[in-house]
Amino acid sequence: METPSGGEKADNSHSEHAHALHEHAVEHAHAVHEHHKEHSSEQHTQHSEHTHSLSHHTQVSSSEGSAFDKAKAFLWKHRVIIVLLIAIFLIAFGIRGHLLRYHYLFEFDAFYHARLVEELVTTGHIISPDPMVYYEVAGGVAAQPWSLYHSISQAFYYLVSIGQSYSKDTLMWSMQINPVIFGSLICILMYFLGKEVFNSRKIGLFTAFVAAVTPAFAYRTMAGAQGDNAFGFLWMVIGFIFFVRAVKNNSLDRSALINTAVAGIFFGLMAMTWRMYLLIPLIVIGYFIFGIILIASNQEEASTKLKKNHAFAFFVKTLITMAIFHVISYMYGEDWIGDALGYVGSAVHMSSTTILIATIIIGAIVTIASVFYISKLKPETKKYLPFLIVLVLYASVVIIALMFATVPDLVDRTTIQSMVGEEAVGHNFFGTKYNELILFPLLALIIFPLSLWLFREKKNMHLGIIFFLWVLITLFMAWYKLKFTFVFGLAIAPAAAMAIYVMLEGLKKFEISKGLEAKIIFVVIFLLVVLGVGASARFFPDYVPYVDENPQWQAAQQWIITNTPADAKFFNWWDQGHILAFTTDRKYSTDNRNASEWANKELAEFVITTDTNRGYTIAAKEIGADYLLLDSSMFNDAPTFEFYVAGKVDSKLAQKYSAGTYRVLNCSPPTSTAVSCEGNSIGISDWNKLSTTWKQVPDDFQNGSLPLFYYKTNDQLIVLNQPMNNINLAKIWTNSEETSKYYEQVYSNSGIKIFKIKK
Questions:
Q1: Which of 24, 31, 266, 755 could form an S-S bond across to 239 if both were Cys, CB 3.0 to 4.6 Å?
Q2: So what's the architecture of 550-757 in CATH?
Q3: DSSP H helices in 593-680
């Protein structure tokens, strides 16, 4: 140990004294340094680096000045991390907030939630049965139950409206920005979660950045998206932060128990917000089975006292967390046991009861074995247990990979419900949803289990299994169902954390030179920025809120508001129900919930029946509507309506419309010489000859034998084959003689027509 240069000039006794003092100071500084570096030591695992730094700073500066001075010093000390987190938040907000320049909400379901929040604001409660939609269903249809998201959105509306009288536009803007704020906050919280799991600020920053830029996650947290999704994940991430803090501490002290309880509360809040809370028990139960074995194998000194047994402490803390979660979720009305295990059972073709019994048995076996046997094994035996865990994790990856390769779909595609777009198989969309970022989960699932063996001497390696299961479970969900690609989208961030962690620890373990290590880290950061930002830049510019992108619906909505009575009842197809019910405050027969199969079937039969009297009976008597709301796109959907009438998807039902072409073409305003309809130029004289009313005589014959009928409006050309020309929709649309006695056309613009039903 060298002394300061000034000590060389002192006498021997003074030099020895100075040398001793210096060496003590160096050792103390080194100890402090090691304390911060090895943050995961047993005495301090219950605190994150952030919490420890704050506590340390408070002790040091308690006599230096006021609380303001302490806060200022703390912010200055952590200025680099704070600046980087602010930058990540702004990136996340910018990616998600670009749709704020539009007026309407982005997702259709967001309009429904806006309507529920509107009821809270104007009446103080959610009205059920639904007073606006499914008016024709006896007894009505129940509204979606209240969730915590609705009340938070209500409070946020009050905040932005600043005490002004109710405004639908203000509410819509507040609902637009909600998911942007929630989604951006989740990205910052992912920093703390990544840091807690891997004890590394670097990993935390990587995790936050990937969450900020992953297209699939940002897509469902964009302005105007369905905000309960983002809000639900907010609770889940916070819950896991506290859960990780709790289980990092191998004792049952006050701090660990507080973190345990807080984790359970936040998990419960997610259950009160969004049904994807079912992901929590799947991850926690799976992690418990692996984690308790690893914790028992890592305990160096066996104890006969349960309170000093690390595996037992882990069992108690997990049990407390899940018990609190269970109570809150059940009080709210959610049956997580039946639902979560039911989903697992449907995937593996086993009953939920069988899955429950198997889970209880496995949990009991690993708990008893870990607490009473594994923790007391000799060290030379314990060291092989991580290897067994690695084998099991790899086996699970192989099993799922084989399932992906041999089972193309899990859904019965003959059901009507399977026709909804978000129910489609998800892996076909991985390229656009994740782009090159999909490499992270693939890499993580391959290399992370091996790290449990390679880095087994490091404490709390078991925490990474939370991320591993999160990625594996959500990958399975997204692979088979499109609507779960959002759920897997957030999992890309923990996948990146695992992959980068293994890389950084590998550099240390194999003693890669500092210069080369810095270059590798730089390359990783560069690729993250290029791949992440590039993926987002390619993904988001194509998205515009539906109503903003289709101004004809804005015009139709305004006409409805201005020209129909407040209690008017519309007969409509479900695809516009959520939007129209919120924007017009009129009553509609169906909406995007598809809550009544009968209502959908009634509209489908009304469209495709060739009996105009039957069509009138449906609209005026069975539905009891005042107005028909028709869209020219319904012509292209005629085969789909056949499926709804039959109650099943059967390609044979669509063959009846295959005898010749049917198309709907948008046309530009006529010039003096021609009309252009999607690239087809029609001479003005020929255009003027086209009929606007229904006819039986065809205008042309396709292939010389298949009759075709041409109809024009001021902005569209409709080409129908013989079967299509005979359906009720065609006759109403073209004001046939037999339907004109039933309906009066009151509005027509850009492919939308509204008819008043004569009674």
A1: 266
A2: 3-Layer(aba) Sandwich (3.40)
A3: 597-608, 612-616, 638-646, 651-654
**Residue 656 token pair:** 């009846």
pTM above 0.90, yes or no: no
**Cα–Cα distance for residue pair 730/747, rounded to 1 Å:** 16
Cβ atoms 318, 247 nearer than 8 A: yes
Opening angle at CA 106, ends 103 and 109, nearest 5 = 125
SS3 36: helix
Domain spans of the chain, in order of start: 5-70, 229-539, 550-757
pLDDT digits (tens, 9 = 90+) for 60-101: 444 445 788 888 887 888 889 999 999 999 999 999 998 999
| Phi, psi for residue 692 in degrees, rounded to 5 | -110, -10
Q: Name the token pair of 624.
A: 């009891």
Average the pLDDT over 705-714 and give the result. 93
- The one-letter code for the residue type at 621 is K
Quick one: three-class SS letters along 298-340? HCCCCCCCHHHCHHHHHHHHHHHHHHHHHHHHHHHCCCHHHHH
The residue whose two tokens read 């004890």 is 199
* Cβ contact 73:58 at 8 Å: no
Sequence-ordered strand ranges (E) for 185-290: none
Structure tokens at 368: 């008893």
Strand, helix or coil at 180?
helix
- The terminus-to-terminus CA distance of the chain in angstroms comes to 103
Site of tokens 């139950």: 145
